[in-house]
Amino acid sequence: MGSHEHSHDHSGPEPLAARVQRMTGLNPACCYQCGKCSAGCPMAAETTLRPHDVMRLVARNRLDKLADADGLWLCLTCETCTSRCPNGCDPARTMDALREIFAAGKDGKPPKAISAFHKSFLNQVRNHGRLFEMGLIMSYKLGGGPMFADVTTTPSVLARGKLGLAPHNVKGMDEVRRIFAACAEEEAQP
Amino acid sequence: MKIGYFPGCSLHGLSREYEESLKAIVAGLDTELVEVDDWSCCGASSAHGSSHLLGVALPARNLAIAEEQGLPEVLAPCAACYARLASARHEISEDPQLAGRVNNVLVRDFKNTVRVRSILEVLKGQIAGIKARATNPLKDLKVACYYGCLLVRPVQVTGGYDDPEDPSSMEDICKAAGAVPVKWNRRLDCCGGGLSMSRTGSVVRLSAAILKDAKAAGADAVVVACPMCHSNLDFRQKAMKHRGAWEGDMPVLFLTQVVGMSMGIDPKTLGMGRHFVSTDSVLARTAGTGSGSGTGTNSAAAVAGEVG
Amino acid sequence: MTELRELARRLLSEGTVNAVLGWEEGPRGARPAFVTTPEGADTLIFDHRCVHNLASYLSPRRPHLKRLGKVAMVLKPCDARAVAGLIRETQIPRDKVVLIGVRCGGVITDPDSTAPLTEATVADRCRGCPDREGHLADHTVGTAGPGFAGPSKRAQKIEELAAAPAEKRWAFWQSELEKCVRCHACRQVCPMCYCDRCLADKTQPRWIESSPHARGNMAWHVARAMHLAGRCVDCGECERVCPEGIPLGLITRKIAQVVSERYDFRPSDDPAVPAPVGTYRMDDPQEFIL
Amino acid sequence: MARIGVFVCHCGENIGRTVDCHGVAEACKDVPGVVHSVDYKYMCSDPGQQMVKNAIAEKGLTGVVVAACSPHMHEKTFRRATAGAGLNPFLCEMANVREHCSWIHEDREKATVKAVDITKTIIEKVKRNVPLNTIRIPVTRRALVIGGGIAGIQAALDIADGGREVILVEKGPSIGGHMSQLSETFPTLDCSQCILTPRMVEVYQHPRIKLYAYSEVESVEGYIGNFKVTVRRKARSVDEDKCNGCGACTQVCPNKKIPSEFDCGLGKRTAIYVPFPQAVPNLPTVDRNKCLLFMNRAKGRPDTCKKCADACAKGAIDFDQQDRLVTEDVGAIVVATGYQLYTIGKDQPKDNLKGYGEYGYGTIPDVIDGLQFERLASASGPTSGKILRPSDGKEPKRIVFLQCIGSRDPQKGMEYCSKICCMYVAKHTMLYHHKVHDGQATVFYMDIRAAGKGYEEFSRRAIEEEGAQYIRGRVSRMWREGDVIKILGFDTLEGEPIEMDADMVVLATAMRPQPGIDALAQKLSVSYDQHGFINEAHPKLRPVETNTAGIFVAGACQAPRDIPDAVAMASATASKVLGLFANEMLEREPTVACVNEANCAGCFHCERVCAYGAVEHKDIKDRAGNVVRVIAYVNPGVCQGCGTCQATCPSKSVELQGFTDEQIWGEIQALGV
Amino acid sequence: MDATTPAVAGGFEPRITAFVCNWCTYTGADLAGTSRLQMASNVRIIRLPCTGRIDPMFITKAFERGADGIIVSGCHPADCHYNAGNYHARRRFAIFRELMDFLGVDTGRITFSWVSASEGGKWRDVVNDAVTRVRALGPFTDYRKLVVDPVATATGVVPPEHVGKEVPA
The CATH number of the domain where D644 resides is what? Predict the structure, then answer.
């Protein structure tokens, strides 16, 4: 009976539901699967794993199934799910926590393009304190984003004076780097 | 009135016209924006999707600086920045443990006293001033006010300055500027947000549905208060057409530009020329701008010519 | 002072009251006085030596005042809290007494002293007292002094005791309570102790051993503290009259702090404000309960 | 001088195995005052009880201690035996050496020491026990029923049929309640009004029921058996004695556009109106907020319209009628004030209710609630039973029902399940399919809760035979496009989002208690939960009693209830009331507080802590009749015996009989070293 | 260390007096019995109708009579058989506990708990924990030895007339 859950649970000694509850302060068991979150989810048509599925799989400790699906990475963080949830669950926050789990461990398989985008984005912030959009575009494409997409539009963006060519570094770069380092360090702790 | 100001990366980059128009209108509204010193990126969805602590600490750094500057409240015009800053404030106030961790990471004595305001919240408080200064009311301009996801929800984070399901502040502001808000259905739908670059197909699907609904409701333009929404609805119209999801040209304006136009501010100052979809049709409808100055790619000179 | 005397004279001559209870100059400083004639009003005084809480005289346990019929009473802001307590607990009807509030800037510790009112001589309860005039009054007279800043020495001593280990506190209180001779002056002077038959005098059963030894003394002072919880107006009279000099104010003040911190209650001179013991909130803190 | 008998029970092996029962009995012999101490195998057996009785008689015992099981088990048994031997039963107490000793310890030596201690504490207590007498309170054998819906009607009829007088107070102009608005009822689909109307008439004609319609309870004083109730009889502006119910007045009233409460706003009524044709009493009422004459008077203008008065042949219209207060003495009260529905609009009556912005806050005209659908489906309704949508009067071909609106939704409504919606939605789909043959009913649901006789079969029939489409999932958003309602939902069973068009949407909104229930509950001093539902005294064993003796609760003011539940509860309250009225005097355990009048200082701390309002003020007068003191008096009819007053009393001037300070003091003494 | 086994053979065994309400904790203790839950035998229960009936004087008297520890236990909030007695008790004992602490009594000697009629297991834990705690604190001779003059004690204890002879402590 119980062996089924155990064989699929890669989250170590702490069950996934408990782990998510610890991270979010929200009880995944609160989800009663009404589907209102998924009904309003803008990406419901494109994903195989909708918000209520995510909540269910968390409650059932199915980290394996969550890892296989694209839903987490297609989430737009629009929070429609959370704001309409009748029972005070927070699917958006839950998905944040799951992304965090996957980002930290090796279970996560975000689609290449999306992962590359987020990585590039954070690199920009880590290195400059602010987003350097031109740098983001370059680094995203080198880091695994579709190479030729938007190539045609970039010049027009430049023409409108929208893209700066040189990054602006904040003065408190030390602090920004420290924040990144400290967060990474704290997250690394069990 | 003095208020702290967190521009955010986009307002210094892709959406600089948002900042240009904002600065142009606040001058007329007796409001002074005090920029947060040496502000850094709020982390956007990339940060909180990879580390919860990082997603809170990055915005908290900016709130801490504002607090040190003695600013009781900070305006974050970008809806995404607003959501991150306001969420950070909310989460820190709800969770003393998190507050401690954030202070450890920041190495600052942050007391979380700064209130975060959205552009709607701030302009809503200035409606009388907007009305009074609307020398060029946008009489016939039918606008579809688009809120998107993060401006009015979740209500715990926003503090409920507007109804999360039936908001009205943007319509009220547009009305004060003389424009006519249309009644439409998709003003709270998501445009596709941060997937613009990484998954353009989804953005095209979602944004096209929004534009179609606005058009069906008879709107001349869509009004937004978010750089990301603007980029998806304006810049991606080309991709939408390319993929056969959308016909026509729907001008997409920042709310601050709408207010600015009503004040008779030069379209160039408002950065109307920086849009991808021409705003000429809008400028034509709101004839009365006496400036006649060129607007870059738009043929505003021609617009001005038509006035006479 | 003229204002007070004139008011007293008027109340007496117009027959509004049969007596005015205030202070007069005694052979050894200020003392409580009953004035029953308009002429007598000139003997009334009010200054920093008027320490006593006259509200005690309103207690039904002292029928001699009641026999005088309707009386007026001179009240400091702190005394007004005691009168409010008596009204709240239906011991006196509000319309049976005329209250003359005096504005106050603090009193000294010892009414017999000739010392001026200074930082050194001021009564401890006046340190940090925010009230310059009471709200429970039919007339308000006089001018208020500036008052004195806190913290009170009592509060400091309480903090000091709280910081000490339990054995130290035990030893401190045993050495203090050992001195108690059970004269019950603390009870007699307390405006809020008005029972006809005190628990301490009951024999069936005898909860409080009556002879003066540390154990009975402990029971007595615990009972007194519990009975005054949320009711004590912090007038400090118990401590002033204790012939053995036991710092009883520490106990009442400590309990007042507990009540204030846990139930956000301070003794009020508004009779309509309910006392915190005898009421409850569903979400009262209960961290000490398993 | 006390003469105590101690009886130690072995309880077979239950006590004897770990406690040396004989040793306990021997040890107790040395306790001063004990004159008899024995042990026996089964003290509760007939011979055991006989031992107690014999000892009382032979040794002249003044107190009995039975060291055996918990008093909750056999205290009554041994007190009965004690009384049987002629000793006051309250001089007998149990020492619990089984549950609290032999069963929880293995060490025989320690258990025996403890058993001796336990028995000694009770010996010391019993030494201080005094004879107590059962309290007898007179009972006024008339009942008040508040609320004239089906629960109130049933309670009133049952009590009246049982031979007692009933005062029935109804807030509205007619009795009948929500049941009179319903079309047909689940699971039998019988016509609601057809089964209700005869009962309404029966109430009206019953010789022992006094009906006060259009009246409200103003105040309640007293206690079980002895309530004094003041009822406000609101001015109808119609003389009840003169009016013959001909209805001529309503025909001529010029203000005909007032939304009818009975038709849930779907129909119209006049300013002088009878809410529905079968109303009981069949009397018109002038709505003073809508009547032109009164609206003019409010503005200080002269009376203009008096058409109703002119039309009345009986001269029954009385514009100057005033509210009247009448008082009634009753011995018991039944609360049956019923429910209201969660409002679908933006304005909500309480902060915790948020309304549904995602469904347009009910601004779409063709989004209605369940009661409105009942009116549409009712033959007596505004559409004569045709299902027509409010916006354009067209027959909706696609109708969608949303369940759990405001229910099971702690964020915007109530966390509880409203219980009846699953069934009435199933019924609605059937009624709809019966009336619109080419229509399709679709239901969005979370779970189908059909626990009731014939309920599951009924809801299955709606799906299997009548063609209702059931989709498991909540709807995220609704909006209007043209005259179509767009619905964005999710089918959690199919795993696909759904965008659906509908012509009409019915929201199965939550059941909430009536507005003003808190004020009424406070008047009655009965407790209510955070939603306003009246609390029952015990959720299992005392489901129709409230925490205040003599006040009972029936129907949907206690929790969401369907008709059979409400009726069953009403009959249960009636049997409770009739039981209470069976005797002229009410008997109660004497464990009540009693004031020492000589010592009471009249501080009334006891009054402040009493949860039952049992403490009264008593004047002590001198010979000349002047009040010299005011002291506390505990009404033994109201006191429930918690003793909080005694612990609070500074001078211990109030004593809880059976648990006096002396008794407790004795117990503590007995435990001393 | 298990509360049911003394620390050292022949070592100190605390005497604990428990004041409990009739409806929740007393019944919960009954349930512990019917469930045969084994627990330390140091506790003597005095039954009151409600925690609202429990007077702080009971506790000082029990200490005087040699109790080393006290348990006060009743119905959980909202469960009071008498609606609100436990709420009044909660305020009373919150203050009393702080008072005892201020006077130098180790508050570990006084245990307050909510134990419902269904919490037999919790009652066992409350008993065992209290016994373990008080055993570690040692005998409360500080309180008992407060009396210097034994004659005064004897006169202080006046038995009611009908009680018969009282054995001096």
Answer: 3.30.70.20
Minimum CA–CA partner of C207 in chain D: D665
Interface of E with C in 92-111 (CB under 8 A): 92-107, 111
Last residue of a domain, one of D489, D511, D533: D511
Q: What is the sign of the dihedral through the CA atoms of E166, E167, E168 and E169?
A: negative
List, for residues A73-129, the tens digit of each pLDDT value.
888 888 899 999 999 999 999 998 998 888 776 555 666 667 777 888 888 888 888
d(CA D571, CA D569): 5
| Per-residue pLDDT tens digits for B96-105 | 889 998 988 8
* Whole-number pLDDT of residue B21: 94
User: At which residue do the structure tokens 């007179």 appear?
Assistant: D138
Q: What ipTM score was computed for the predicted complex, to two decimals?
A: 0.66
H or E stretch at D475: strand D475-481
> What is the pTM (predicted TM-score) of this model?
0.72
Most confident of C74-78, D570-574, E36-40: D570-574
Nearest CA in chain B to D357: B165
A-chain residues within 8 Å CB-CB of D472?
35
Among the partner-chain residues D409, D413, D476, the one whose CB lies closest to the CB of A39 is: D476
Contact: B166, D357; criterion CB under 8 Å: yes
More confident residue, D419 or D636: D419
| C251-265, D32-46, D234-248, E134-148: range with lowest mean pLDDT | E134-148
Asked if D137 contacts D586 with a C-beta cutoff of 8 angstroms, the reply is yes
Q: From the CB coordinates, do chains A and E have 3 or more pairs under 8 Å?
A: no
CATH class of domain segment(s) B135-307: alpha beta
Contacts of A39 in chain D (CB under 8 A): 473-477, 488-490, 497-498
The subunits that touch chain D, with at least 3 C-beta pairs less than 8 Å apart, are A, B, C, E
Is there a contact between D99 and E34 (Cβ–Cβ < 8 Å)? yes
Segments of D510-575 assigned E as strands: 511-513, 551-553
Cβ within 8 Å of residue C183, ≥6 positions away? C243
Average pLDDT over residues D7-29: 93
Measured between beta carbons, the chain D residues lying within 8 angstroms of C227 are 650
Q: Any idea where the domains of chain B sit in the sequence?
A: 2-119, 135-307
pLDDT tens digits, A19-75? 999 988 889 999 999 999 999 999 998 888 999 999 999 999 998 888 877 788 888
Q: What is the pLDDT of residue B66?
A: 95
The DSSP string of E83-148 is SSHHHHHHHHHHHHHHHHHHTT--GGGEEEEE--TT-HHHHHHHHHHHHHHHHHH---HHHHTT-S
Domain boundaries, chain C: 2-141, 153-263
For residue D111, the domain's CATH number is 3.40.50.960
CA–CA dist D631, D653 (Å, integer): 10
Topology, domain B2-119: Glutathione S-transferase Yfyf (Class Pi); Chain A, domain 2 (1.20.1050)
- Packing angle between helix B52-68 and helix A91-104, nearest 10 degrees? 110
Nearest Cα residue to D340 out of D515, D148, D182: D515
Contact yes or no for E91 and C276 at CB 8 A? yes
D358 inside 8 A of chain A by CB: yes
Residue B296: its chain A contacts at CB < 8 A?
160
Which of D:420-459 have CB within 8 Å of A? 446
Touch C-E: 3+ C-beta pairs under 8 A: yes
Gap between the terminal Cα atoms of chain C:
58
Who among C196, C207, C227 is closest to D599 (CB)? Answer: C196
Give the class (CATH, top level) of A16-104.
mainly alpha
Rounded to a whole number, what is the distance in Å from the CA of B132 to chain A's nearest CA?
32
- List the single residue in D with minimal CA-CA distance to B186: D479
- Contacting residues of C for E84, CB less than 8 Å apart: 280
